[in-house]
Amino acid sequence: MASKNILSDIGLLCNKLREDLFVPASKKFFPILQKYIKEAGNGYLTESGPTWIDFFFAEEFDSMNHLSPGFYETYPEFKELNSKIHSLPQLQEYLKTRPQSAL
Known about the structure:
This protein has 103 residues and is mainly alpha-helical. It has five helices and no strands. The chain starts with a helix and ends in a 6-residue tail after the last helix. 13% of the residues are buried. Its EC number is 2.5.1.18.
């Protein structure tokens, strides 16, 4: 019985953190990232093409999509960035053989 209460408490805490921290931060910062992607005009965050920051955010966006269904529908630019990074020919072998994470 105690573990059910702990799991329930953890779930409540996660929901509270999401509402108190993640949602306000995403409303503040995600439009900035969307702006950079739109201004670059190529689906990446910079005009010069993919950089390390595109790889970083592609993985972060993928995690957010798994944790928050509908994420990519809300932020289609982020889905496009993720797709562009994951479709790079140089990454195909790695993506097929990499270990899968819980996120």
